[in-house]
Write a structure and sequence with these properties.
The chain is α+β, with helices and mostly antiparallel strands. It contains 5 helices and 25 strands.
């Protein structure tokens, strides 16, 4: 009987090796085409090129305007490359890049913009810069020219150009017969792809895309550790990548290693303790019975500060109707928070950063600020869509939901 069991186990292990996968390991491959992350972008204003230091192999027409700027290439010594937005008189605009640094813009260094069908004044162009990664042929940089865009802060001769903050590498891994989409941070100057630092994503629900919304369990930021994701009752993390073989190795993890708290409509936010700015130990449970806006924020965050006047107004208008705010502040110095509170009229509870580190970095994997959620009196999520909890929409949301 023992020999039979041993034989069966040996055969199963051998079969696993034959299939190219160790027990508890899953393998897959990268797609060699990188994708843009449009969630975060740089905005720059190109200025007229008064030096005219470049020559063009094909002479420009009289009346042509040239605006100079830089793009983030991610691999050069400075991380930036000079580019020129050329608008010939009576002809489509193009982007000029002196890739071979010979001082002459040749035919192959002209990159034509393409207009979007739905927005003809939004012009896109993609240029490729070299990478040190052996698997990817080039680092694509998308530039969006907002033709005709005006703003009081932009001079009439300026040209607004937008560039995505980063690109991602995508791969697919076969996990128990299912092809699962994985997303990895990509650094053009690196020969490999990290598995323990950066923003990672996994299509956990199988809908073919990765949900990057705040509090989504399909995306998260990690430092110095493999990020564990849940696919049904299977828990996985990326163990290693081999750029030469184009192989991703994902390993199975224990349920106990999945520390994320998943939030969604109708789900209760688990209780947690924190220390407020006065040094008193508090807990989320104290706010039961209230409509509570839980706000991950920081004074350092421009977008967070933009929300302050609306939150102050909401607190003033709706506190009598059972509304409260709990600020989970991510500033290192308490004085930074208290000074800002005094200047802006914030009077609601604020948690100290050192008391919510695990909550922020491990349980909710907050990587984008502000991140807010509205809880009902029973502690369950009633609004998680960020657009409904920001600006004037916050006031409209509360007016609609809170009892009168």
């Amino acid at each position: 009987m023992k020999r039979t069991i041993s034989t069966i186990l040996g055969a199963l292990l051998f079969a696993g090796w034959i299939c190219g996968q160790e027990p508890g390991r899953f393998t897959g491959k990268f797609d060699t085409q990188l994708v843009f992350d449009m969630s975060y972008t740089y905005q720059s204003v190109f200025q007229p090129d008064k030096t005219r230091r470049l020559r063009f192999a094909e002479p420009l027409k009289t009346g042509t305007t040239i605006a100079a700027g830089t793009v983030n290439d991610g691999v050069s010594a400075t991380g930036k490359t000079s580019v020129f937005l050329v608008e010939p008189a009576g002809a489509p605009p193009f982007l000029a890049v002196d890739a071979n640094a010979n001082g002459v813009i040749e035919a192959q260094e002209r990159h034509m913009f393409r207009a979007r069908p739905d927005r003809p004044n939004d012009l896109d162009v993609i240029i490729k810069f070299p990478t040190k990664n052996p698997l990817f042929p080039g680092n694509p940089v998308l530039l969006q020219y907002k033709r005709g865009f005006t703003h009081p802060s932009i001079p009439s001769y300026g040209r607004l150009v937008i560039q995505p903050f980063s690109v991602y590498a995508l791969g697919r891994v076969n996990i128990n017969g299912r092809s699962v989409l994985f997303q990895y941070p990509f650094e053009p100057a690196s020969v490999t792809i990290k598995t323990t630092d950066g923003l990672y994503g996994v299509d956990t629900d199988g809908d073919g895309k990765i949900n990057a919304a705040r509090f989504s369990p399909e995306i998260g930021y990690t430092t110095n550790s493999e990020l564990v994701f849940r696919l049904g009752d299977v828990y996985v993390s990326t163990e290693k990548v081999d750029m030469v073989k184009n192989e991703i190795t994902v390993r199975k993890r224990e349920k106990a290693e999945y520390l994320r708290h998943e939030l969604d409509l109708g789900k209760e936010m688990p209780n947690f303790e924190f220390t407020d700015i006065s040094g008193k130990v508090r807990s989320l449970a104290e706010f039961r019975g209230k409509y509570l806006l839980v706000d991950f924020w920081g004074v350092w965050c421009v977008d967070c500060r933009r929300e302050t006047p609306f939150q102050v107004e909401a607190y003033k208008q709706f506190r009598s109707r059972g509304f409260e705010i709990l600020g989970l502040d991510w500033d290192d110095k308490i004085e930074t928070v208290t000074d800002y509170m005094a200047k802006t009229g914030i009077t609601w509870t604020q948690a100290r950063k050192d008391s919510i580190r695990e909550l922020t970095e491990v349980h909710y994997r907050i990587y984008e600020y502000p991140s807010t959620v509205l809880l009902g009196p029973d502690g369950k999520v009633i609004v998680i869509e960020q657009e409904k909890l920001q600006g004037e929409e916050l006031l409209k949301t509360l007016e609609r939901i809170l009892p009168k």
